[in-house]
Amino acid sequence: MIPDLEGVLYVLPTPFREDRQIDLRGLDSVVEFALRSKVQGLVILGITGEAHKLSDREKVEVVDRVVSRVGRRVPVIAGTGNLSTDVTVSFCKEIERIGVDAAMVLPPKLAKPDDEALVSYYKELSQKVGLPIVVQDEPVTSGIFMGPLLIAKIREQVDAARYLKLEDPPTTTKASKLRSLLGDKIKIFGGLSALYFLEELESGTDGIMTGFAYPEVLVRIYELFVKGQVDEAAAVYYRCLPLIRYEAQPLLGLAIRKQILHRRGIIENPLVRPPGANIDELTKKQLSRLIERLNQTQSDFKF
Amino acid sequence: MIPDLEGVLYVLPTPFREDRQIDLRGLDSVVEFALRSKVQGLVILGITGEAHKLSDREKVEVVDRVVSRVGRRVPVIAGTGNLSTDVTVSFCKEIERIGVDAAMVLPPKLAKPDDEALVSYYKELSQKVGLPIVVQDEPVTSGIFMGPLLIAKIREQVDAARYLKLEDPPTTTKASKLRSLLGDKIKIFGGLSALYFLEELESGTDGIMTGFAYPEVLVRIYELFVKGQVDEAAAVYYRCLPLIRYEAQPLLGLAIRKQILHRRGIIENPLVRPPGANIDELTKKQLSRLIERLNQTQSDFKF
Amino acid sequence: MIPDLEGVLYVLPTPFREDRQIDLRGLDSVVEFALRSKVQGLVILGITGEAHKLSDREKVEVVDRVVSRVGRRVPVIAGTGNLSTDVTVSFCKEIERIGVDAAMVLPPKLAKPDDEALVSYYKELSQKVGLPIVVQDEPVTSGIFMGPLLIAKIREQVDAARYLKLEDPPTTTKASKLRSLLGDKIKIFGGLSALYFLEELESGTDGIMTGFAYPEVLVRIYELFVKGQVDEAAAVYYRCLPLIRYEAQPLLGLAIRKQILHRRGIIENPLVRPPGANIDELTKKQLSRLIERLNQTQSDFKF
Amino acid sequence: MIPDLEGVLYVLPTPFREDRQIDLRGLDSVVEFALRSKVQGLVILGITGEAHKLSDREKVEVVDRVVSRVGRRVPVIAGTGNLSTDVTVSFCKEIERIGVDAAMVLPPKLAKPDDEALVSYYKELSQKVGLPIVVQDEPVTSGIFMGPLLIAKIREQVDAARYLKLEDPPTTTKASKLRSLLGDKIKIFGGLSALYFLEELESGTDGIMTGFAYPEVLVRIYELFVKGQVDEAAAVYYRCLPLIRYEAQPLLGLAIRKQILHRRGIIENPLVRPPGANIDELTKKQLSRLIERLNQTQSDFKF
Predict the structure, then answer these.
(1) For residue A235, which residues of chain D lie inside 8 Å, CB to CB?
(2) pLDDT tens digits, one per residue of C112-161
(3) Do D24 and D44 form a contact (C-beta atoms < 8 A)?
(4) CB burial string A22-44: b at 16+ within 10 A, e below
(5) pTM to 2 decimal places
(6) Please, what sign has the CA dihedral across residues C176, C179, C184, C186?
(7) What is the DSSP letter of C161?
(8) Backbone torsions φ then ψ of C188, nearest 5 degrees
């Protein structure tokens, strides 16, 4: 029995080889890197994992490899995309069998936002699948806006929907509203590339699901925060913000993140699958300068 | 060698059984129905085919079944979705091997419309795959607007991109601009549920790809038109418009279409895979009344 | 005291002169034309009225001219756009003073759909302004989707919000759901260029707000329908549908509508204010052919 | 003759009184505050200025007051919204007469992005109005994506279009592409709440148009950068980033900015006109804590 989700759940990128096929050994390497960083769980097949650029077969390959590599050391959560109910159900059954611990489920691309249809979707899923569900509140990708009342309704009617990945800004006020509606009946995780990590924790979130290329820092911030050393957590966080923010650039972010992981020796090739922006010379230089400058600060941590 | 595409290319729905699995015999039945109606080709895995609600495996199943049933009597075109370059390439290779005659390719969901990236996408596809390409200009689904100059650029740089499915209204003026830019170097097919079929033909299109539940009428309109009997074509078309328009209702359209095919005895179950609107009692009644009234008109054709 | 709104409320275009300034005499002419056609009310400053391309001063000019020309022969409804609460309130006060009978209010462009904020908006408006309110459910323009439950909530909490302009398809099923939620506590008007006029009436709407260039036909259909002669209403409607549908073309529709009004001698200049598509030669020809063909049908009505 | 635009052009908020009317004395106060901060110009009627929530009359009031208060000490740029060509032309003529130095022009909400229509729009404007034009590349508000080639085309065909406000991320790579296409024929200003200010300058921008509540810091960063003291500029920038980022929160940002200006004694009332999020208690507390922590750092500058 896997303990309840909380803390830093690291969103894994999918490494590719020069021929643009999945680099399975690179995937092992990212898993080990994340576990060495002491993250409390792993998230695969998210947007950062380029799940929308993988075939069904490739998705299962990623799940298989990661679950077997992790060997139950931490929980593994997998994204399911927003397909039809039937396809999501059968994908969930498959990953449950492989050993995934929770399914992260984007609301389906209905032609039209419709509260009842959304509740039914999650309800049917929970009736047919045994996995706990992370409701993914990410309107940019899903095109679906879910207000706090709707999320509360889903939580109340769908027992399995115990977790929320909250990426609908402003996340601080939304987390706080959800907490006042649902108390501790829901676990809330931030995201948004960690741009508001500390403030989200102050607003009552239970952790974060994100893929910042220095997960060890996120873990440190989280640990200081839960020990009540909030100012110390803030000091570490503020020091990282120039880099967190640079990595959070729309469109370019994933290429920057993979570039850093490549420089750190975690993945062999920083390639992003096309169509999708790869790193350019200007960005490489800016990234190097930024890291150099950050490392000139007195600190026990070097980027 | 399949002759060049033109005329009425019928967009097939995917029939489902009560348990929401694909009804393969229903698929055979729809194929035979379309061929009896004398359509000049078949289009599978379009939006009407609920392709976005099928798993990769199910998509291949549909392709397999339809290609083998058709037995080269007419060309078969298959939609590929808008995945990553690599997934689209490998899907295209698979359907080429099975015997599909052309790939209908939606522009990829780039985070941002970018002319160069779009041209490269189609170019790389054509370099790696042997199939002719139908560029699918459907901005509502793809989120990508392609102006006439961009479409001309794709046509000029990508030899395989010989066809265009045009669903960006107003289609009449766009078809006419494309014709003046590209002459007969491109074959243009309308869509939009046949709402502007006659006017599109008058504007220079080469046919239509749509799934109106009475394909035999579309064939008759097309044949009259190409024989120069435009007023006769118009008379048939105008008579059908109340029904064409009713079937074209946003969100409800597919449920209505499947309902008609069900009443006509072509498919056993009119089910639309959830999430997706199924037929309600009000709509059933309105549809019946509409058909009754149309059938009171003096005509050699009954709905 | 103006009687309650119902029937065909004609949405007026704003005619412009060659120099692109408002043609006030043309506006008089459109008003008289509509009244001759026996419409039950007039709607100004809608999207068809190009309200979003008028300055505040021009909007007041239009209201002034139309209200004074109508001289209380029928009710006049004016659109208010979706500005801030304060600007909408002061605009409503101004048009109330001039003599408008109801304000048609699009939900405000909130950064995010939020039920409470929407209800508050209409509530504050009704507290500060005396006019009845037509809630405008037109998600394409407003960017705001309002489900039946939200509309019912607005109706229940805002006494002045007695009317709904429904342009969120499928309008038939939505009208029917609203009727079952609200009974006759709300008056519902269709729109959508009359593309589903008959079916909307069959679903329980109280009339339509639209600007089809032959309002006399809409009036005839409505009158036949309310007298219970539904098949006769249908016959007239079906005969007009080829033209209604042609005029409903996205982007081109207003240019076609103004072109017909120009041909009918109602407005001197068919100009649409830029940016906005004006009529082209192809469309002019198609329109002429279409009208010729329709007029070959045996009927007491000629287009 | 006003010197060419460059450096920090401060985007002014519009202060409101408790009764939600414009606080004209507050506007004077914001102007003087910005000038004391040594900004090189002022931008009014931007999104930060809540221009879309002002009536035409109120907009002119703001322009009048600011221009007269500034007394030509620095250039004043005014936003024009994205109305019809005619309304924009007459608004531009009015603000030119009042003494504004440049018009910031969002591309018009065409129903459809269309290169030719966009170039024509700016061309016609420049033919009818004498003001230099700042093309505003802000796709979230305008709904219009303009690629580098289109911007280059506008620059080449429209002499007055000498400036670009660039808010289409990633701004660094876009600025760099534009520089390589257009050399120094265009002045490029960043925005995006200063989230990428330093990197934009490194990519070749000429300054920034933004409304961060501590403009004196932006000026200092800019001055250090142009003197070649880039590492010093970076040190100041990185120190401010926690606050810049917090103020950049979607939806909440303007309320936070006005709250800071209120705390600094610049405006009496931090009110944001409804509909629009106002500050809540959670955010007030987080803001206080954030500023306290930043002020614990050794520095010659206190927030």
Answers:
(1) 293
(2) 778 888 999 999 999 999 999 999 999 988 888 899 999 999 999 999 99
(3) no
(4) bbbebbbbbbebbbebbbbbbbb
(5) 0.96
(6) negative
(7) -
(8) -110, 130
The dihedral built from the CA positions of residue C3, C4, C9 and C11, taken in this order, carries a sign that is positive
- CA–CA dist D104, D165 (Å, integer): 8
**pLDDT interval class at B1 (50, 70, 90):** very low
In terms of DSSP H, where are the helices of chain D? 24-36, 56-70, 85-98, 115-128, 139-142, 148-157, 171-182, 197-202, 215-226, 230-247, 253-263, 281-296
Nearest CA among B33, B24, B34 for reference residue B209: B34
**What pLDDT is attached to residue C297?**
84
Spatial CB neighbours of D237, under 8 Å, sequence gap ≥ 6: A242, D197, D198, D221
Taking alpha carbons only, the member of A112, A186, A174, A175 closest to residue A143 is A112
If you ran DSSP here, which 8-state letter would residue C194 be given?
Answer: G
Query: Which class for D1: exposed (0-12), middle (13-18), buried (19 or more C-beta within 10 A)?
Result: exposed
* Positions of chain C with pLDDT under 50: 1
CB C10 within 8 A of CB D76: no
Q: Could you tell me the sign of the dihedral formed by the alpha carbons of C179, C184, C186, C192, in that order?
A: positive
Average pLDDT over residues D78-100: 94
* Cα–Cα distance measured from residue D29 to residue D18, given in angstroms and rounded to the nearest whole number: 17
- Residue D172 to residue A282, Cβ atoms within 8 A: yes
Q: Which two tokens stand for residue C123?
A: 């509530």
pLDDT higher than threshold 90 for residue B143: no
Query: Could you tell me whether strands C41-44 and C76-79 are parallel, antiparallel, or unpaired per DSSP bridges?
Result: parallel
B111: contact with C, CB 8 A cutoff? no
Q: What is the DSSP string of A175-199?
A: HHHHHHHHGGGSEEEE-GGGTTHHH
The size of chain A, in residues, is 303
Single-letter amino acid code for the residue at B232: E
List domains and CATH numbers for chain D: 7-227 (3.20.20.70)
* Contact present, A12 and A44 (Cβ < 8 Å): yes
The answer to whether the CB of A104 falls within 8 A of the CB of A129 is no
Quick: pLDDT tens for A188-245. 999 999 999 999 999 999 999 999 999 999 999 999 999 999 999 999 999 999 999 9
Q: Which of D20, D84, D112 is nearest residue C273 as measured by Cβ atoms?
A: D84
Q: Is some CB atom of chain A closer than 8 A to the CB atom of B141?
A: no
Q: Give B28's Cβ-side CA count (13 Å radius).
A: 6
Q: Which residues of B touch D147 (CB under 8 A)?
A: 113-115
For residue A294, how far is the Cα from the chain centroid? 25
% of chain A beyond a pLDDT of 90: 89
Longest dimension (CA), chain A: 55
Cα–Cα distance measured from residue C285 to residue B55, given in angstroms and rounded to the nearest whole number: 47
Count of beta carbons in the 10 Å neighbourhood of residue D89: 18
What digits encode the pLDDT tens for the residues D238-275? 999 999 999 999 999 999 999 999 999 999 999 999 98
ipTM score for this prediction: 0.96
pLDDT digits (tens, 9 = 90+) for D1-27: 456 899 999 999 999 999 999 999 999
**CA B281 from chain center: how many Å?**
28
Q: Which residue of C has its CA nearest to B232?
A: C293
The β-bridge partners of C105 are C135
Contact residues for D58 (Cβ-Cβ < 8 A; gap 6+): C87, D22
**Chains B & D: contacts with CB separation below 8 Å:** 13
Q: Hey, are the CB atoms on C113 and A149 less than 8 Å from each other? A: no
CA D294 from centroid of its chain's CA atoms:
25
Cβ proximity of C14 and C22 under 8 Å: yes
Tell me the CB-side half-sphere exposure of residue D158, using CA atoms within 13 A.
Answer: 31
Which residue type sits at C105?
V
